[in-house]
Specification:
Immunoglobulin-like; 799 residues; 4 helices; cleavage on pair of basic residues; mainly beta; 43 strands; five-stranded mixed β-sheet; membrane; calcium ion binding
């Protein structure tokens, strides 16, 4: 470090010495190793010679050097002298004052206002700020007036190697495939140096590897890391740690350095074949295992990882290739052996398989390393198990004639116990499949018999299930479906396919086909149906009609003559005998109804009734009946509507809207009790329509006309209310035209039926002395007090 500093100082002193020799005598330089700014000459001087004459004198200005230099990170007990300012106007009389302003003036740089010396009072760092721009000016000491214009200059901070290289993005991670060739590029790293890259070699970096050799190398200038060894194997070592150094000063002695780490991971390639952990595998399986069950697992290990370790498994040889299969488990990377077909211990007790495991993804670059597959032998032993009975056939098809006798044997099912012990078998019918119990089975030999009669026309097929159970172990059962087909016998006579009704035109011609009929038979003969048609023996020589058999097994009825008249005979009945071709043949007689009708010239039937003669042309009896029915229905609807409308609008009792009983009589005095007959008019309680004692009712129609007696005329005053009410009650009770009990009767009198009696002053026919108010005590405290008040009043009257 001292030698480097000496070299830098020598570089600075050389130009300064040359400059000092060439300067005029008026310029002074501080005897230091720093640059200085020298200012010579004086400002424009204006000398006053008189009011009439002015002489302008301008002194010669000296050369100005506007740069100074100072080393960074320079420190000492005293401030560092950067340079000195001086002007030719300074005679040394100390009348000139130097002023410094600009970047860092007063804080970083300080000027001696008398001598013009500039000092750095703080430690400088070029990486923080490389140069400072300041302004210097000479002013009068006393007046502070400028003696010359301000001069701007720059102080540059010179760099020293004070920053070590740094790896800003470290530590680093990189990958490279295993088995790579020599010189394969891995990655590159970059370091930075904060020193000045222009000045000297402070920022010139050189890279090297401190740790990680001999596996990797690095380019000194580009920092590209490469493999230094070929065929590095991931299975031997997967991860490497490399320490990288960056050194400045071009790597020379005395330079600063920085380090980082690089983690290199070798990625996998398929360079290893699969290998079975063992060459022979043993498995055992019960003979009654369910198809598809996993019997065992085999695994071939592969040192590679990921898809490079994926292997597929196959059975390539052995005596059980048809019974077993192997599938690959992608997660566990093993092979699963499963059962494809049922096993039988009694038939074969062991099997040998040869399985192979082969890589799925093969890298052709490493095909020379050998086949990427391996084989192993698998031995499977079948264990004996208690098996359920086995039927001789998986399904049975039986046939029986529908006229078979009860308890006759339809067929037989057989089953055996496949085990060595050979347990006896018991047979039964699953009654859920034979709800009507039409069949039975012998429990010992499996013979199926008929339990109820069969009818093929009702059901052709019967599907039942037979159960075979081991006698020694009832849990061992087997089921087999049995289909029973009912065979046909000729037990149904033929008949017309439908209800035929033929129409014969009055103007028809002889030999005209009136109707074509066909027959049907519920039986199903093997050779199909063939019917024979004939007339009854007594009608063979029928004068009106004849029959003709058609090739399609149908029958045509023909008219023998014309001139049929419906007024003479409207309907003809023609019995026809239909026989089948069964053995023995069956027959039946069906009657065809033939109606004589009136037809148009084209043979279109217009009317088949005798009444049609009296009807207007073009209008049939059915049409007239429909029209009359519609008219009658409309009339009935209108009458019902009017009746219901009237019945809804009329009240049950006819009364005048001005019935005085609906009026409200209001008065503000209490009245004088029963003695007072001036307070209200009893006539207001009477219906004006009932003055004569009769109210007509509209809710019912009376059978007898009720003639009530002549009632008393209403009298404004002096009428006994009790007598008036009694009269009205008697009339209502004896009126045969009275409304139903749910009708409303309005009375102005409370009546005598109340348990408490009447509290109204209207009931005044009895004297006060006859009344007893003790019963009011049973109604509660308030009525008890009321009874006491009335009792006190009675006693006072007696006294």
């Amino acid at each position: 470090m001292p030698e480097r500093l000496a070299e830098m100082l020598l570089d600075l002193w050389t130009p300064l010495i040359i400059l000092w020799i060439t300067l005029p005598p008026c310029i002074y330089m501080a005897p230091m190793n720093q640059s200085q700014v020298l200012m010579s000459g004086s400002p424009l001087e204006i000398n006053s010679l008189g009011e009439e004459q002015r002489i302008l004198n301008r002194s010669k200005r000296g050369w100005v050097w506007n740069q100074m230099f100072v080393l960074e990170e320079f420190s000492g007990p005293e401030p560092i002298l950067v340079g000195r300012l001086h002007t030719d106007l300074d005679p040394g009389s100390k009348k000139i004052k130097y002023i410094l302003s600009g970047d860092g003036a007063g804080t970083i740089f300080q000027i001696n206002d008398v001598t013009g010396d500039i000092h750095a009072i703080k430690r400088l760092d070029r990486e923080e700020k490389a140069e400072y721009t300041l302004t210097a000016q000479a002013v009068d000491w006393e007046t502070s007036k400028p003696l010359e214009p301000p001069s701007e200059f720059i102080i540059k901070v010179q760099d020293i190697n004070d920053n070590a290289p740094e790896f800003l993005n470290g530590p680093y991670h990189a990958t490279v495939p295993e088995m790579s060739i020599l010189g394969t590029s891995v990655t590159n790293v970059t370091a930075t140096d904060a020193d000045d890259p222009v000045y000297g070699n402070s920022a010139k970096l050189v890279y090297s590897i401190l740790e990680g050799q001999p596996y990797f190398s690095i380019e000194p200038e580009t920092a590209i890391i490469k493999t230094a060894l070929p065929n590095m194997d991931r299975e031997a070592k997967e991860e490497y740690l490399v320490v990288i150094q960056a050194k400045d000063m071009g790597g020379h002695s005395g330079g600063l350095s920085g380090t980082t780490t690089l983690t290199v991971t070798l990625t996998d390639v398929n360079d290893n074949p699969p290998k079975f952990a063992q060459s022979l595998y043993h498995f055992s399986v019960p003979e009654d295992v369910v198809l598809g069950t996993a019997i065992g697992r085999v695994k071939a290990n592969d040192q590679d990882i990921g898809e490079n370790a994926q292997s597929s498994y196959d059975i390539i040889d052995g005596d059980g290739t048809a019974l077993f299969e192997i599938t690959s488990d992608a997660q566990a990377q093993d092979g699963i052996i499963r059962l494809r077909k049922p096993l039988d211990f009694e038939t074969k007790k062991s099997y040998t398989l040869k399985v192979e495991a082969a890589n799925v993804h093969i890298d052709p670059r490493f095909s020379s390393r050998g086949p990427f597959k391996d084989t192993a032998t698998v031995k499977i032993v079948v264990e004996d198990a208690d098996e359920p009975p086995v039927f001789s056939s998986p399904t049975y098809l039986l046939e029986v004639h529908e006229n078979a006798a009860l308890n006759s044997v339809i067929g037989q099912v057989t089953a055996r116990d496949p085990d060595i012990t050979s347990s006896p078998i018991r047979f039964s019918i699953d009654r859920h499949t034979d709800l009507e119990r039409q069949f039975n089975i012998n429990a010992d030999d499996g013979k199926i018999t008929l339990a109820t009669p069969l009818d093929r026309e009702l059901s052709v097929w019967h599907n039942i299930t037979i159960i075979a159970t081991e006698i020694r172990n009832h849990s061992q059962i087997s089921r087999v479906p049995v289909a029973i087909k009912v065979l046909d016998v000729n037990d149904n006579a033929p008949e017309f396919a439908s209800e035929y009704e033929a129409f014969l035109c009055e103007n028809g011609k002889p030999g005209q086909v009136i109707q074509t009929v066909s027959a049907m038979d519920k039986d199903d003969p093997k050779n199909g149906h063939y019917f024979l048609y004939s007339l009854l023996p007594e009608m063979v020589n029928n004068p009106n009609f004849t029959i003709k058999k058609n090739e399609d097994n149908s029958l045509s009825i023909l008219a023998k003559h014309n001139g049929f008249n419906r007024q003479k005979q409207e309907v003809y009945l023609l019995p026809i005998i239909i026989s089948d071709s069964g053995n023995p043949p069956l027959s039946s007689t069906s009657t065809l109804t033939i109606r004589v009708c009136g037809c148009s010239n084209d043979g279109v039937v217009q009317s088949c009734n005798v009444e049609a003669y009296v009807l207007p042309i073009g209008l049939s009896m059915g049409a007239l009946i429909a029209i009359l029915a519609c008219i009658i229905l409309l009339l009935v609807i209108v009458v019902l509507f009017v009746t219901l409308r009237r019945h809804k609008n009329e009240p049950l009792i006819i009364k005048d809207d001005e019935d005085v009983r609906e009026n409200i009589i209001r008065y503000d005095d209490e009245g004088g009790g029963e003695e007072d007959t001036e307070a209200f008019d009893i006539a207001t309680l009477q219906n004006p329509d009932g003055i004569n004692g009769f109210l007509p009712r509209k809710d019912i129609k009376p059978d007898l006309q009720f003639m009530p007696r002549q009632g008393l005329a209403p009298v404004p005053n002096g009428v006994d209310v009790d007598e008036f009410i009694n009269v009205r009650l008697h009339e209502a009770d004896n009126d045969p035209t009275a409304p139903p009990y749910d009708s409303i009767q309005i009375y102005g009198y409370e009546g005598r039926g109340s348990v408490a009696g009447s509290l109204s002053s209207l009931e005044s026919t009895t004297s006060d002395s006859d009344q007893n108010f003790d019963y009011l005590s049973d109604w509660g405290p308030r009525f008890k007090r009321l009874g006491e008040l009335y009792s006190v009043g009675e006693s006072d009257k007696e006294t």
